[in-house]
Write a structure and sequence with these properties.
The protein is α/β, with parallel strands linked by helices. Helix content is 34%, strand content 21%. The chain has helices at residues 23-28, 89-96, 119-125, 142-149, 157-167, 169-173, 184-195, 214-229, 241-247, 265-269, 272-284, and strands at 50-58, 66-73, 78-82, 101-109, 112-113, 127-130, 202-206, 233-237, 250-255, 258-264.
Length: 285
């Protein structure tokens, strides 16, 4: 679940005439055009868990951030997305999760078209998303945050809380502590744990190590590997490109909304062009 309401600026009960809305507000008002169920299986797509193909997407009409980028992930894979600031990395995740309008191209889940599907429906279908910021409810306890994660199916709370507590023992031990009192790394654990409460098949992570100390960044990457080892396909956007490529099975380098390079994490980490253009001196050390 995303934890965000695209209509948060609208007073309940008001009826907006689209003709009176600014253009950007019409673009943000996604629900009327979003789909409430997956499409039929697309021939040839069944062997991918997730396939984003030739996506053109953006936040405002006529201004696209993604200019035809593509990505695949198979069951059990850990896939990384790196690139410079403004390349469209986070936009790609949000487009896959129904938070940004896809103008052309397709997103499939197990071969079924989920392009522009509502985020709440995607959660039910097994897709989870953890945004970079504002990803916990600070006034709620750890336990309450995890309960919110399975609001669509409260019966999952018991078994999924046990599973999440196995992955992140500190969450179980401190379940009554308010999330607002946690460190940045601990909040990331809560955010990832909440995303796992609906037992997703794929987890989309938007820069989970951003703003953390090097030690806490390492802890986040260890946690991501643990989630993947538990059977969840993970697609991670990371600004810490070198560390990301160390843990992923495959990676994509985005630049100006397009695929620049792709390959295994090891191949990308050792590619002279990728090092020169995107990894810098950190990768050379």
């Amino acid at each position: 679940m995303s934890g965000f309401d695209t209509h948060s600026g609208v007073t309940p009960g008001e009826e907006d005439d689209p003709r009176e809305l600014p253009v950007f507000a019409q673009e943000e008002n996604l629900n009327a055009e979003q789909h409430s169920r997956p499409g039929p299986v697309v021939p040839g797509e069944e062997h991918y868990l997730v396939h984003a193909e030739d996506l053109v997407a953006g936040y405002f009409p006529g201004v696209n951030i993604l200019e035809g980028c593509s990505l695949t992930a198979k069951e059990g894979e850990l896939v990384g997305i790196i690139g410079p600031n403004g390349a469209g990395k986070s936009t790609l995740l949000k487009a896959m999760f129904g938070l940004v309008r896809v103008h052309s191209g397709t997103v499939t889940l197990r071969g079924r078209n989920i392009t522009n599907m509502r985020a709440d429906v995607l959660v039910h279908e097994g897709v989870a998303f953890v945004p970079q910021t504002n990803n916990v409810f600070p006034s709620l306890t750890i336990e309450e945050n995890l309960q919110v994660g399975c609001y669509q199916n409260p019966k999952l709370f018991g078994p999924q809380f046990e599973r999440v507590s196995t992955l992140f023992p500190a969450l179980g031990e401190r379940r009554k502590q308010r999330a607002g009192s946690l460190s940045g790394g601990e909040r990331q654990m809560v955010a990832m744990g909440r995303a796992l409460m609906m037992d997703p098949s794929v987890l989309l992570l938007d820069e989970p190590s951003a703003g953390l100390s090097p030690a806490l960044q390492d802890e986040v990457f260890v946690n991501v590997k643990g989630i993947n080892a538990a059977g969840v396909t993970v697609i991670i956007v990371e600004q810490n490109a070198s560390r990301c490529l160390q843990i992923v099975d495959r990676g994509y380098v985005l630049d100006q909304g397009r695929n620049a390079y792709s390959g295994t994490g090891k191949d990308l980490a050792n590619d002279p062009k990728v090092i020169e253009l995107y990894l810098g001196t950190l990768a050379k050390a």
